[in-house]
Specification:
- By secondary structure, the chain is an alpha+beta fold.
- It has one domain.
- Strands 1-2 form a two-stranded antiparallel ribbon.
- Helix 1 packs antiparallel against helix 3.
- The longest helix has about 35 residues.
- It starts with 7 loop residues before the first helix and ends with a helix.
């Protein structure tokens, strides 16, 4: 069910919750594979992370087209129009891209001549996953998730209170 533009705060928080949940899943995958020295392609496991980028949204585009000045058009004195297809309020997920990226940095080389994955010199390349970095990222993702949940609850409470008026 698509939430109407009036409740776009719910959409923003829900998108943030979804991204942070996916980020936590990716961090868990990195931690689980931190000791893998050989995957199906013969290489050690490479750390994965998300790149989230946002292009200019509809509001920014309209603001730039207006020459950085905002003019409010009113139908009557004291009223601001709010038609369903107002471009400023349109919530469009097309401006947000989430891409999974594989870190191509080389892992540490460890001298293990008896290991079956060792190269000709007897070195084994480890995964480039750093557990400390992953734990910091996990804490960051958890805090971001909590912040989005707080924003969602605030939007919900605000909507509930406005319906009680």
């Amino acid at each position: 069910m698509k939430i109407q533009p009036t409740f776009s705060g719910f959409d923003v928080s829900a998108k943030g919750l979804s991204i942070q949940r996916k980020r936590m899943d990716l961090i868990a995958e990195n931690i689980a594979n931190a000791d893998v020295t050989k995957t199906e392609d013969g290489q050690p496991y490479r750390r994965k992370y998300f790149e989230v980028t946002a292009s200019k949204n509809q509001f920014d585009n309209n603001l730039m087209a207006a020459g950085n000045t905002i003019q409010l058009v009113t139908s009557e004195d004291g009223h601001i129009p709010y038609p369903e297809n107002t471009p400023l309020m349109k919530n469009n997920d097309d401006n947000l891209s989430v891409k999974e990226v594989t870190d191509q940095k080389q892992g540490n080389l460890v001298y293990l001549p008896d290991d079956p994955n060792a190269n000709a010199e007897g070195y084994v390349e480890e995964s480039n996953v750093n557990i400390v970095t992953e734990m910091v990222d996990m804490i960051s993702a958890t805090r971001s998730y909590e912040a989005n949940l707080t924003a969602l609850n605030s939007s919900k409470q605000l909507t509930k209170d406005s319906l009680e008026i």
